[in-house]
Amino acid sequence: MLVARTATLAPTQPDRRESPVRPLAPPTGSGRTRKGRRATIREWGLCAGSAVVVFLGAEVVLGFVPAVPQRVLTPSDRRLTVSLDCYPTNPRGYFDVDVRDPAARRRFDELRVRRIGECAERAPHAIELRYNSLQFREREPGPRRPGVRRVIVLGDSFTEGQGVKEADVYPRALERALNAQGVGDWEVLNFGHRGADFPVLRETFDRILELDPDVVVYGMMLNDCEQAPGFRARHRRLSDRLTGRSRQERDPTGDQAFGLRTATFVRHRLERLSTHRETLAWYRELYAEPNHEGWTRTQEHLRRMHRGMGARGGQFLLATWPVLTDLEDDYPLRGVHEAIGRFCHRAGIPWLDLLPALEGRPARDLWVHPLDAHPNHVAHGLVGRRLSPVVRELVEGRRS
What we know:
It is a single chain. α6 packs across α14 and α7 packs parallel to α11 (292-311). The protein is of the alpha/beta class. It is 44% helix and 13% strand. The strands form three sheets. A five-stranded parallel beta sheet has the order 5-4-6-7-8, sandwiched between helices. The protein has a three-stranded antiparallel beta sheet with strand order 1-3-2, covered by helices on one side. Strands 9-10 form a two-stranded antiparallel sheet. It has helices spanning 2-7, 31-63, 102-110, 116-122, 157-160, 170-180, 200-209, 229-234, 236-242, 261-286, 292-311, 334-347, 355-358, 377-396; strands spanning 82-87, 97-98, 125-130, 148-155, 185-192, 215-220, 315-320, 351-353, 367-369, 372-375. The protein has 14 helices and ten strands. The chain has a domain at 148-228 and 280-396: 3-Layer(aba) Sandwich (Rossmann fold), CATH 3.40.50. A hairpin with a 2-residue loop joins β9 (367-369) and β10 (372-375).
């Protein structure tokens, strides 16, 4: 009964003598508060001091970093028969010309190559480029030789081989791979020209037909697509940069006054991240509704090129280069490649995606230079060897 009665009672108040109510915080002005404040001040002081030390250290280090060009310097003679791709450093030892060498300087002066002095000062490591009378990086094309199968490769700077020796560009690698099998003789001509996109590529293709090729390989870079006027107007700055019409001259970090170098360095890195995101979006929109008119015109160019080769009994192959970024991870422009592939399938155009030939490798390992994301000689070799069996099948009529 006692237990039942107790259960019906309302909750009792705690005995203040046994369980005194403690304040949530010590009274203002207590010793504990003063100690806590001093500890907080010390922590903030240490953080501020560390930040100052890091900032001053970064300023000193960045002061020793020379300002370097953000693009390749490309001096040439007025007739564009000889040119140079010049870089500020030679990290892999690949560039075989040093324009600071007096003998090299005299030779290019005699060839009337302009701006050699500027290259010697700012970008002395170079490769030499020679052009034929048609202003392509190729020997003078003559009539077809009996029994020799002729392949002509069309494209932009990826095909021309910016920053790559002539012997190492992928049309040369393709030629070696085709002839290595010892079945017939093959000739591959390089009709790549930096900065070329549609409709200029169509005009070049029409000139190529006069040389009676068995196969035309179009090495398509994703920025080749024609741009509708409205699309270009909305993205003028980015479009000009990605198509080579506008180039940043240099990174001025090393030229900044003390106290501004770190801020400049951080700002440039943030700008690069932002530009990278904008660039990927630009590529996606180029092949989607925002550039519907331009992509539609590009598709018609490709259909006409395919029909033009078919009418002559030849073959046309579209080979799509990837943008050299994020090749190790989830390549961000795979959807663009798929859109091009779907179009080619509908149009009956033979198509080869070059992404698998390069995927899985660090993208920077395939760059010409840390300042130049064009494919280097390693990437060119991989692509040339990947193209060889496909071209052979096209000519021999075994491609399904």
